[in-house]
């Protein structure tokens, strides 16, 4: 298998149940999925079908009721909290619909922080942050606090932060869902460009079918399983 087709993420028989009073809700029911290195896949499904749950399981933010998550062909869902945290830090980038930037730190510092936590030197972390923010057209905003940034600038900073530690896998949960159409298109253009340049495997949940059509393929959730759209 060539490097371009290495499996970055594999979900195997993934099931997630929640207890609501006396009722058991099964959000995912034996979902299987593979995502290859350098591939960008759209996840398009109606609200309430389990998109966020799926991304949280893939990103090790939640544990499955049954089934397994593999990253770089290594089983990771059953690891200890400490080890899963390290895997998230080193191998996974997560972009939320709302940016969750730290308001007391500049754009550059927000992108530096995950690198510093991972043990990268301040000099190298700053260089990486400046490079990523520059790719997103934010070189003039390096020293701006989030409150001084537009919604689109905040989201581009959040995407840069998610890519800061050169993750193998990028998971994005409606990353442009709270932006106007023009800003959404621009942010998405930048996201696709940088993800392709960096060769990251990306699973991006979006309700926008036009944006989804620009990705390599599209999947949806049906009956708790992932199927081709």
UniProtKB/TrEMBL annotation:
CDD domains: ABC_MJ0796_LolCDE_FtsE (cd03255). One of its GO terms (molecular function) is transmembrane transporter activity. Residues 9-229 form the ABC transporter domain. Keywords: ATP-binding, Cell inner membrane, Cell membrane, Membrane, Nucleotide-binding, Transport. Pfam families: ABC_tran. One of its GO terms (cellular component) is membrane protein complex. InterPro entries: AAA+_ATPase, ABC_transporter-like_ATP-bd, ABC_transpr_LolD-like, MacB-like_ATP-bd, P-loop_NTPase. GO terms for biological process: lipoprotein localization to outer membrane; protein localization to outer membrane. It comes from the Bacteria. Belongs to the ABC transporter superfamily. Macrolide exporter (TC 3.A.1.122) family. This is ABC transporter ATP-binding protein.
């Amino acid at each position: 298998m060539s490097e371009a087709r290495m499996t970055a993420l594999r979900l195997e028989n993934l099931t997630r149940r929640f207890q609501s009073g006396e009722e058991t809700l099964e959000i995912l029911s034996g979902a299987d999925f593979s995502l290859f290195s350098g591939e960008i896949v759209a996840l398009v499904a109606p609200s309430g079908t389990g998109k966020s749950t799926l991304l949280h399981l893939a990103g090790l933010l939640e544990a499955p009721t049954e089934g397994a998550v593999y990253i770089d062909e290594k089983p990771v869902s059953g690891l200890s909290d400490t080890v899963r945290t390290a895997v998230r830090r080193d191998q996974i980038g997560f972009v939320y619909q709302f940016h969750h930037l730290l308001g007391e730190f500049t754009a550059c510092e927000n992108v530096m922080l995950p690198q510093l936590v991972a043990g990268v030197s301040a000099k190298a972390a700053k260089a990486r942050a400046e490079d990523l923010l520059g790719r997103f057209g934010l070189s003039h905003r390096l020293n701006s606090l989030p409150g001084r940034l537009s919604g689109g600038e905040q989201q581009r900073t959040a995407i840069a932060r998610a890519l800061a530690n050169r993750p193998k896998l990028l998971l994005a949960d409606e990353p442009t869902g709270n932006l106007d159409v023009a800003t959404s298109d621009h942010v998405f253009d930048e996201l696709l460009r940088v993800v392709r340049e960096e060769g990251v495997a990306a699973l991006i949940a979006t309700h926008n079918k036009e944006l989804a059509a620009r990705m390599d393929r599209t999947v949806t959730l049906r009956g708790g399983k992932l199927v081709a759209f």
